[in-house]
Design brief:
Layout lengths: L11 H24 L6 H14 L18 H7 L8 H26 L6 H4 L2 H7 L2 H8 L4 H17 L3 H14 L6 H10 L10 H22 L6 H4 L4 H13 L12 H15 L3 H20 L15 H20 L5 H26 L2 H4 L4 H5 L1 H13 L5 E4 L3 H7 L2 E4 L7 H10 L12 H7 L3 E5 H10 L7 E3 L2 E10 L5 E7 L1
Parallel strand pairs: 1-2, 1-3
Antiparallel strand pairs: 3-6, 4-5, 5-6
Length: about 525
Amino acid sequence: MNLTVNSKHRSFPSRILSFGVIAAALVYLAAMAYTTRSYFVDDAYIGFRYVDNFVSGKGFVFNPPDRVEGISNIGWLAFLAPWSFLADPPVVAKIAGIALVGVTVVLTYLIALRLMGDRPDYVFALPIPLLVATHYIYVYFSLTGMETALLCMLLSLIVYFALLDRYKILSALLASFAFLVHPECILIYPLALLIDLRLNIRGWKKHIGPMIVFVGAIIGFTIGRYLYYGSILPNTFYAKPSQIVTVIGRFVGLFNSTNPNIPAPFNGILVVVLLFFGIRSFWKKFRTASAYIGAIVLVGMFFCIYSQPDWSGTGRYFAPYVPIASIPFWAGLIVIHRKLLSNLMSKAGQAKLLLLYASIMVACNLLVALGALGQASVNAYPAFVLTSEPLVKPALWIRDNLPDESIIATKRIGALSYYSQKNVFDCKFGLTNKEVAKLVNKHKRYFSDLYDPALKDIWKKVSPDYILEDLVIVDAAVRASKGKRQRFQIHGIPYRLIKRFPISKTNEWALCEKR
């Protein structure tokens, strides 16, 4: 079924309705931005630490002067860095997130309008801004300091320029920059090229220019990364290993709606079918753009299959792909709907039913947001790490009361490092420590237990001056060493508990110092 139509056929009243819906979407985003104005994901502070050190002249590093690329979103941090000379990185990230989400909502609507089929825009294109703007996982991680907002805008621009056809080189260049924001995005352009050619190499000549630009940019970025950090891949590649058995499990989970990395409504075999029919409906007239849409959705799903479930328990890995995926999802729903009901219901009746579907989906999105931002949820794990508010006060106390040269071992390195301005030893994931990352990769597990024997050599080498961990983890180490809170050992180094910080109703941080 062809969904394309000349935009001149849209009526004036539908344009007024379009502006009204977009305005409603932007007003909702403004309300979300206000509600989450003081919230930042703890992981975002890892990047802010890099930017802060760069602005301070200490280099693009986490623990000066060690050059370790402990982030996988260096493109986002490069985007923030120039503006961070004018304001603190969290402020810059918050403003940028709001602006980028707003631009993405408008871009996805413009894309949907151009892909619009033989139906009024209020049926196909109009629900898109609301479906995107109210998707909680996408919006939350866009507004709380992560790279989600920038990557979404880049992916939307890639598709938008591909629709204009004469900007193929620009789409390829944007795809190369998306690689710096999320490494898996290196697959988008090659995959789109393969889909576009469909193994028919007769059309390869028109892709020579964009291919040269893409490959050249990737090579340039990789050389720059190697020269500065001494590694071709970010350290996070080694710190977040996956095993084939769990990858297979997540692949199966994509079809039976149990993949934890993919949020609703993009999980399940029915959704895969809808996405396929949606992309297929655009293919005839907008082949290149359809290829990019298909590549973006496939890369997002691949990343969610490959990656271990996130500590947050959310589907944030797919969040950057939500806006573009929403377009073929909704188009596929229309196609299936028309096929099943064409002989049972008039077009006007089908349109009303589709709008009812959209209303229900938006209402569900709003309920998810209300539940997630409720007081009970915010004060429980993992929400207090997703907002970071309870983590700031301990970090400021540590800044004011511990020596500047202190090394602190912990698993939550973001807000602590940014606000305390102390060197932090990531003893669980190894995000900013190459040796721990290699151990994680070797043993295929994170080090939740401070007393884990695999950590012994590196722990002795670093010899952390302080430990800041959940009290239950410290107590486990105390029991393992057969000591007491006032005196216990970790890998032969004596520590004692000196202060406790409540960070939720059920969690406490324990600060221990080396004796």
